[in-house]
Amino acid sequence: MKKLLLVILTVFFTGSSFSQQEQISFSEALSLHLPKYKLQADKAYRTRNFERAEFLFDSLINYSLKGSRLDNFKVKDLRKNSISLDEFQKPVYLTTYASWIVPTKGEIPALNKLAEKYSDEVDFVLLFWDNHDTAKALAKKYHKNIKVLYVDEMQNNSSYVIKMMKHSLGLPTSFLLNKDKEIIDIRRKISHPYGLELEKSFDLNFNSFNEAISLLLIKDSSQYSQTKEALTP
């Protein structure tokens, strides 16, 4: 029985190592699959076939981008210091945003609540496509556990992946990354009527964020849990 268990564990870890060696970057995966997606998605939007457009987006994420590794890009923090993605050691909940996007009533309070609860386990990162002053002003609305970063395209000679992240998938977009920066999922924010009362808006946003964070934590701990369970007498 012990020999069988050893063989299973050896195959498991060998397979994981191989898949990591074969893993491609997000920018590579996007370059391969984005042109076809944009061609089909543009047609769907032109004909107002929003169900088809959503299906195409989900297919791009699920079959082409999940499992790729998000490139180690560099941006600025609010002190104007350079910071890279790989500096974050925990699983990352990364959302790209812009000042011209109006959040729903309960969106920021819900995210703040979860950042307060899960900051020991998850790095919450908010990346604004704006200048420093705008990002600094917007940061005051968010919990201190949320790391606010920015990209000023008038000054920033950012890497290829930064431009791809902004212009390819739309805003806002959330990237769920494990500790190795592998993409677990990519999600758009939920939408609801802006006239919805605060309590209902909070609940909708909270449930959406919480489900994403739960998935991130489960994915991050699954390999450890399976291994620990297998080794338990």
From TrEMBL:
Domain Thioredoxin intervals: 64-218
Keywords, ordered alphabetically: Signal
Keyword RNA-binding: no
InterPro entries tied to this protein: AhpC/TSA, Thioredoxin-like_sf, Thioredoxin_domain
Leader sequence segment: 1-19
The keyword Signal is assigned to this record: yes
Recorded superkingdom: Bacteria
Matching CDD domains: TlpA_like_family
Pfam family, one: AhpC-TSA
Protein name listed in UniProt: TlpA family protein disulfide reductase
Organism: Salinimicrobium oceani
